[in-house]
């Protein structure tokens, strides 16, 4: 690794002519066989209403993810809402969520009339801190929504133990974690219900889309009914439960055809991201001032929606803040961004009445989001070895320059 002069100070950039990010495959990826599937849907005149491809997808996605059932919906926001409905969460209940996630995680309890309680995250994995969950539990707590954020899987051993001790439900927000596993079990099956997003940036996408997974037939039926105007796939002809207000949150068969087509490529892409992550991790193992987002357990099979870096400000020169490092990296041809830029409760669009939610002390959320986090989309980990090597070289070069020692 080099200690050459930084490009921002007039030195030669590590990437010349094109940035590292431009060597990552285009996202979302396109596959020729999906075009044929789309044409087939178009010509079938069966465009919506749980037709051929969605029916196949429900079976295949559940099997791939290691769940008994999957129910596809319009997006990964309504899946969270339907998951809480299926578990009977409603007015008077409290739901514990991490302070760092997309707003949908924290809004889902509010949609069903419950109160959202936001707690702090773990500084290394960035997932909800189980110790903070336990502190936030009251007699009204009904559920926990851990988020498997960016590339890490939350500590489901501890979260499950807490849920069992206090009689709570778990909805896993797996919007970033298609194909991820903990101790060999697919995310979305570690708790009661899993929620996935297929929005444009996600590891699997149809532009928009969502899915719930579960191993419980009762929840699977409820989830399908709640999102498909009351109809049942598992018990056709049987009326929905009394009082269920059923939504129309269906997918089209165009979306199902795209997601089904992508499924065939997931294992290969996941493996490549994992291999390149390990390469990057090894190359940066002696680099000061920065670390990669950590996994909870060594055997976690991570999916890498994002490659996420965390600065270690205590190892950096006093004037080396995140923006300075970002600019220096950019000059070397490496674009890392700050992600959402805010914890949920500070997001400009989070204009929610303070009586309807509670925020506990969250110093780690603030430190991580405002000072430490730098991310790029996981497709950088689909780039070839020479790109990953230079990517690491650029990071090492910049971090050594700004290192305090
Ligand atoms: C962690 C998390 N949960 C839920 C969602 C909501 O998914 P969707 O955009 O499909 O509604 C997102 C979307 O980005 C997300 O990042």
Description:
With 405 residues, the protein is an alpha/beta fold. It has 2 domains: 160 residues, Aspartate Aminotransferase, domain 1; 229 residues, Type I PLP-dependent aspartate aminotransferase-like (Major domain) (Aspartate Aminotransferase, domain 2, 3-Layer(aba) Sandwich). It is built from 11 helices and 13 strands. It has an 8-stranded mixed β-sheet with strand order 1-9-8-5-4-2-3-12, with helices on both faces. Helix 8 crosses helix 11 and helix 9 crosses helix 11. The model has no long low-confidence stretch (mean pLDDT 96). The chain binds pyridoxal-5'-phosphate. Pyridoxal-5'-phosphate binds next to helix 4.
Secondary structure elements and pairings:
Blueprint: H1 32-44, H2 52-65, E1 69-73, H3 78-86, E2 94-98, H4 103-111, E3 115-119, H5 130-136, E4 141-144, H6 156-166, E5 169-173, E6 181-182, E7 185-186, E8 193-197, E9 210-214, H7 217-227, H8 253-283, E10 290-292, E11 306-311, H9 322-332, E12 357-359, H10 363-372, E13 373-377, H11 385-402
Parallel strand pairs: 2-3, 2-4, 3-12, 4-5, 5-8
Antiparallel strand pairs: 1-9, 6-7, 8-9, 10-11, 11-13
This protein binds pyridoxal-5'-phosphate (PLP).
Provide the gyration radius in Å.
22 Å
Query: Which fold name is given in CATH as the topology of the largest domain?
Result: Aspartate Aminotransferase, domain 2
Strand order of the largest sheet: 1-9-8-5-4-2-3-12
Order of H and E elements:
HHEHEHEHEHEEEEEHHEEHEHEH
Low-confidence stretches: none
Round the mean pLDDT to the nearest integer and report it: 96
Structure summary, number of beta strands: 13
Q: What compounds are bound to the protein?
A: pyridoxal-5'-phosphate
Distance between the termini: 17 Å
Bin the helical content. Answer: 25-40%
Count of discrete structural domains: 2
The number of helical segments is: 11
The CATH architecture term of the largest domain is 3-Layer(aba) Sandwich
CATH top level of the largest domain is Alpha Beta
What's the name of the CATH homologous superfamily of the largest domain?
A: Type I PLP-dependent aspartate aminotransferase-like (Major domain)
Supply the helix-strand structural class: alpha/beta
The coarse overall form would be globular
Largest sheet: 8 strands, mixed
Strand content: 5-15%
